[in-house]
Amino acid sequence: MEKRPFGMKGKPVPEIGQGTWYIETGDRKAAVAALRRGLDLGARHIDTAEMYGSGAAEALVAEAIAGRRDEIFLVSKVLPGNASRKGTITACERSLAHLKTDHLDCYLLHWPGSHPFAETFAAFEELRQAGKILSWGVSNFDVDELDEALAVAGEGRLACNQVLYHLEERAIEHAVLPWCEQHGVAVVGYSPYGHGSFPSARTLGGKLLQKIADEHGATPRQVALRFLLRRPSLFTIPKASSPAHAEENAGAAKIVLSEAELAQIDQAFPRGPRPRSLPML
Ligand SMILES: NC(=O)c1ccc[n+]([C@@H]2O[C@H](COP(=O)([O-])OP(=O)(O)OC[C@H]3O[C@@H](n4cnc5c(N)ncnc54)[C@H](OP(=O)(O)O)[C@@H]3O)[C@@H](O)[C@H]2O)c1
């Protein structure tokens, strides 16, 4: 599995990670086995959050990573409502307890809320200095929020922005992705399969994915993940609850798509106009 620098100052991190939203709701044994299978295949980047099952997803992750913490890039998130200076510290300590670890590799503000960034980021820095987190970042930040975060934190502090990114939702390409690349911030794309609404094989786009997949001895989902990783700033974190799904997802690491194939996918799933709510550059 290829590893990429996680932002400007970050260490190399596997390009394909593993999500955990709703992972605690199904067969627990299969979910733990799925995460472990993914780890075996190099998807050693696990994304979780205090929000997921109110800590139950973190507890399941703890079970999956027991005995192999050192090989994993472990990410969790603080809920905006908890992201005051004091609340962020308490939330992080609660996540560490659920995850049965003494540190996170990266800690994120799940989305912008009402607590001033200065408070949340001061808490992140305090946690970093205490060795409880090694880096920190944000999630669901648009360009205006990124500008504000940068003004508060300064260059080189934000490790990543975790954002919605799949074939049918490419809005980040208009401004968020270029902003992050310009400032050395890793872009972690979430819901790469549209949170369960992957293009049907009956659609034109679905047929194209199948055709390209057949040419590579791969699957349409693997082709999709490859497209979503086509720039070096990008990471992807599909969630799987079975070892077979985890295996398929990690298997995307082996495929190389040509420029012509990437262009065909680009046309079949156009990024669309820039969302109106965003200020124009
Ligand atoms: N920062 C944020 O605000 C935010 C928001 C959303 C998500 N996320 C993160 O991103 C992760 C991924 O996003 P997501 O969970 O929303 O959706 P997703 O990864 O796009 O899709 C998950 C769905 O795809 C299915 N799936 C996965 N691999 C498959 C395969 N190889 N073949 C067939 N089906 C497959 C899963 O089924 P099974 O479960 O049955 O395997 C599940 O139903 C989350 O788990 C979370 O960690 C972050």
Report on the architecture of this protein.
- The structure is a single chain.
- The protein is α/β, with parallel strands linked by helices and 281 residues long.
- The chain has 10 helices and 9 strands.
- The chain has helices at residues 28-40, 56-65, 85-99, 117-129, 143-153, 176-182, 204-216, 220-228, 243-250, 259-268; strands spanning 3-5, 12-14, 45-47, 73-78, 106-109, 136-139, 158-164, 186-190, 234-236.
- A 7-stranded parallel sheet has the order 3-4-5-6-7-8-9, with helices on one face. A two-stranded antiparallel ribbon has the order 1-2.
- The longest helix is centred in the first third of the chain and has 15 residues, at 85-99.
- NADP nicotinamide-adenine-dinucleotide phosphate binds at residues 19-21, 47, 110, 139-140, 162, 190-196, 221, 237-242, 245, 248-249.
- NADP nicotinamide-adenine-dinucleotide phosphate (NAP) binds next to α9.
Main β-sheet, spatial strand arrangement: 3-4-5-6-7-8-9
The molecules bound to the chains, other than polymers, are: NADP nicotinamide-adenine-dinucleotide phosphate
Helical content band: 25-40%
Q: What is the count of helical runs?
A: 10
Which stretches are low in confidence, meaning pLDDT under 50 for 5 or more residues running?
Answer: none
Query: What is the terminal-to-terminal distance?
Result: 36 Å
Order of helices and strands: EEHEHEHEHEHEHEHHEHH
Principal-axes geometry comes out as: globular
Annotation, overall tally of beta strands = 9
Radius of gyration, in angstroms, nearest whole number: 18 Å
Instruction: Supply the helix-strand structural class.
Output: alpha/beta
